[in-house]
Design a protein that fits this description.
19 helices, 3 domains, elongated, 5-stranded mixed beta sheet, 67% helix, 465 residues, Heat Shock Protein 90, alpha+beta
Length: 465
């Protein structure tokens, strides 16, 4: 029984790894988090106890048994999340690296007691003291990495502009894991020779701390880059609003002139009507109604109106029919730049899709309105030609390099606001339906992020002084 407990306690290091591996991907689970949590709480401890019983009964080496449990965790994680292979490998190796660090450091801490461990030479099984120390260290590591696992890494995984880096970034935690494995001694007593133990007590924590610093710098760089892109988008929207304002001012000037001469116009119209000169009357009215027809107001929101006007002009050049129904108030419950970016990406994709069709088939329909005080809906559809293949993330597969980023950006925006996005292709029509909710959660998260950055800035200033 004592041997079974020792096996189970050492294999229990997989339990903290479950938290390390799933915390960054809570938004990319195939099933609900509660279901994933319940199944993890049933499957993994059961597998640990089963392999611990088998190891204790047959005195198996603990390393192969541990690898078997790690492999089971990987399979469970692989089928539980909707991410690319590179992202899955990164999260997996990062979690296993943290668990391996806790195991090795517990050996270094408890080495005076491990020297008397009769099972180390044969199966390399840790003592209960070392296993409990490893579990305690995993709790400390979890607290240190909590912000990175719950804020920084999820933000990096969602950032579409750096999606290509995950194909090789998993090498970083993998290299750290291999280094920790290489530093694991063949026997604990080796650490008592010279200054080996003192050296490892200082050097080992540098591995996860350097990774923590690397993740933070990467997150900080991507955050600043995203902020720069957001500012560029807002500048583009401001330029659109400027053009829209100029058009409105021109329209108001022309209508002011018409109103000023309204009495004279009535006299002329009355004279043409009295004499029955219908053709001359229509010719006279044509320039008066031209101004009204030229200016179209799409919604009550100035920013949204500017984006709609911009893409309406592009559609006109492309000979595409646009059907607008933007029943939006002056103030919408999400950030205007986020909504306008999302609307612009969808319109750009739609206009590109219909450009391959004949002019009489080119049409795009846009509907957006407030479904409640805190819920906003957006729907868009357009015909398309060819066949659309969907990827595992539910988005259409793009055959051209650089394309497809727009829909990923839209999906990330929807996720940030806790909304939903449904994409369908039926009878040659591509449609997108989106629900977005109030921005209170988003603003709270950004406030927390801002406070954290301010705190880090103060800490850096103190160290520089």
């Amino acid at each position: 029984m004592d041997l079974f407990i020792r096996y189970a306690m050492e294999l229990a290091i997989i339990i903290p790894d479950v938290f390390f591996i799933f915390l960054p991907v809570t938004r990319d689970l195939r099933w609900r988090p509660r279901f994933i949590g319940c199944m993890s709480a049933i499957l993994l401890p059961s597998f640990i106890l089963l392999t611990a019983w088998a190891g204790a009964a047959r005195i198996w080496p603990v390393i192969p048994t541990l690898i078997l449990n790690v492999s089971f965790l990987f399979l469970w994680f692989f089928f539980s999340v909707k991410l690319s292979l590179g992202k899955k490998l990164f999260c997996f190796f990062n979690a296993i690296m943290l668990g391996a660090f806790c195991l090795l450091y517990s050996i270094v801490v408890t080495v005076p007691y491990e020297g008397k461990n009769e099972f180390w030479a044969s199966v390399r099984l840790l003592s209960l003291r070392a296993s409990v120390t490893a579990l305690g260290l995993s709790l400390i590591v979890g607290v240190v990495f909590l912000w990175t696992l719950t804020v920084e890494l999820p933000r990096l995984l969602e950032e579409e502009r750096v999606s290509g880096m995950w194909d090789f970034l998993f090498i970083v935690p993998l290299a750290a894991l291999l280094l920790i494995g290489w530093m694991t001694p063949l026997h604990p007593q080796i650490l008592l020779i010279g200054r080996s133990r003192s050296f490892l007590l200082v050097l080992l924590p540098l591995i996860p701390l350097m990774l923590l610093l690397f993740y933070h710098l990467l997150w900080w760089t991507v955050t600043k880059f995203s902020e720069s892109v957001r500012l560029q988008q807002e500048n583009t929207f401001l330029q659109m609003e400027g053009k829209r304002y100029e058009a409105l001012r021109s329209y108001m000037g022309e209508t002011r002139a018409i109103r000023h001469d309204f009495h004279n116009h009535l006299l002329v119209i009355k004279d043409f009507a009295r004499s029955g000169e219908t053709e001359k009357l229509l010719e006279y009215l044509s320039p008066l109604t031209e101004t009204e027809e030229r200016y179209v107001k799409y919604s009550a929101n100035r920013a949204v109106d500017a984006v709609a006007a911009h893409y309406a002009s592009l559609a006109e050049i492309q000979h595409t029919s646009m059907n607008w129904k933007l029943q939006l108030p002056a103030h919408i419950p999400i950030r205007e730049s986020d909504y306008c970016s999302m609307l612009g990406n969808l319109l750009e994709n739609a206009l590109r899709a219909v450009s391959t069709l004949s002019p009489e088939q080119r049409r795009v329909s846009v509907i957006s309105s407030m479904l409640s005080d805190n819920m906003l809906g957006l729907a868009m559809d357009n015909p398309f030609s060819g066949e659309i293949v969907f990827e595992k993330n539910g988005l259409p597969q793009s055959g051209r390099k650089g394309h497809g980023i727009g829909l990923i950006s839209v999906m990330n925006t929807v996720r940030r606001y806790g909304g939903s996005m449904n994409i369908k292709t039926e009878n040659g029509v591509f449609s997108v339906e989106i629900l977005l909710y109030h921005a209170a959660k988003q603003e709270k998260a950004e406030k927390t992020q801002s406070e954290f950055e301010t705190h880090n800035k103060k800490v850096r200033e103190v160290f520089l002084l």
